[in-house]
Amino acid sequence: MSRFTAINLSGLAPPDIIETLDYEAIVTAMRDDLVARFPLIVGVIDLESEPARKLIEAFAYRELGLRARINDAARAVLLATSYGTNLDHLGALFATAYQYHTLTVAHWARDVSATTPRPGVVRVSVLKAGPDPIPTLAERELIRLHLKNEAIRPLTDVVQVVAPIVRRTAIEARLTLYPGPDGNVVRTRALQALTEWVETNRMLGMNLRRSALISKLHQEGVHSVELIAPAQDLVLDVTEVYAIDEITMTLASTRDE
Length: 257
Known about the structure:
Layout: H1 23-37, H2 51-76, H3 84-105, E1 109-118, E2 121-128, H4 137-147, E3 158-162, E4 165-177, H5 183-201, H6 210-217, E5 222-229, E6 240-251
Parallel strand pairs: 2-3, 4-6
Antiparallel strand pairs: 1-2, 4-5
């Protein structure tokens, strides 16, 4: 059971930034301002038939709408009253804060994601740079203690620091070449392009798409690419990363046309 009690946001007092709207008060303020600027109108400004009175009422209605819009904008960035995509962006803001603070203490980290598997729980996944993507227990504990600081995390958040889920696969392809350059030269060029892209793209939540692999293999001198493995796209969420166990590339017979 959690050591923290979730705050009942509905019980919070309305924030000071939210203005109580009063149409009649706006009309009165506009009327008094006009009289102060043009005292001669004082005898007729309160008549319902006075055109200036009609203008004041129209302007007051428009100002009321503008103030209501400002109230709505303020509510959109408050956790208790935000909704829809506004709330999604607030959640992204908190996730970005956790990512930033993790990277300040874990300079060895290649990538960081923050998710909320359930209310009040923040799961920080950390991808380690280098050939081994899994941070040690001591490295994860260092991050957890840093994020535990109440100056960083909201009071009711329970922070978990975990290693990424590694989805292992192999890449196998057969290249058919145009006549011309030595086949090994073309193969080396394709292998280099593929290897560089696979490493650059190896981040949390980055998919391994067959179309991208074929594109990188389709270097100058390659007529066609038969991608044998992976047999389908590897689609990952932000807690997962792929790992390539092996890249196998063979050359088929050279195309004559």
